[in-house]
Design a protein that fits this description.
Blueprint lengths: L2 H74 L1
């Protein structure tokens, strides 16, 4: 094998190692992003449930306030 061929092989091995490092870095970034997406989904579900709960309380509060007004008007009559 000639020196030139040997240098090419060494270059290819270095490039291959560099590509593997870059792939590992990208995989780590993907894992981190996947975790972040999962956390955001959990937050979104919590906020949706919280919003539904608040909305339920508003409806109950409005109904209760209306009942008090109705009772108050009934007592004035």
């Amino acid at each position: 094998m000639e020196l030139h061929d040997f240098k090419k092989i060494c270059d290819y091995e270095r490039q291959s190692a560099d590509y593997e490092k870059k792939c590992l870095e990208i995989e780590k970034q993907i894992e981190a992003l996947s975790l972040e997406i999962h956390e955001k989904e959990v937050q979104r579900r919590f906020l949706k449930e919280y919003s539904d709960h608040i909305q339920s309380l508003e409806i109950t509060s409005s109904a209760y306030a209306q009942a008090i007004r109705d009772k108050s008007l009934g007592e004035k009559s």
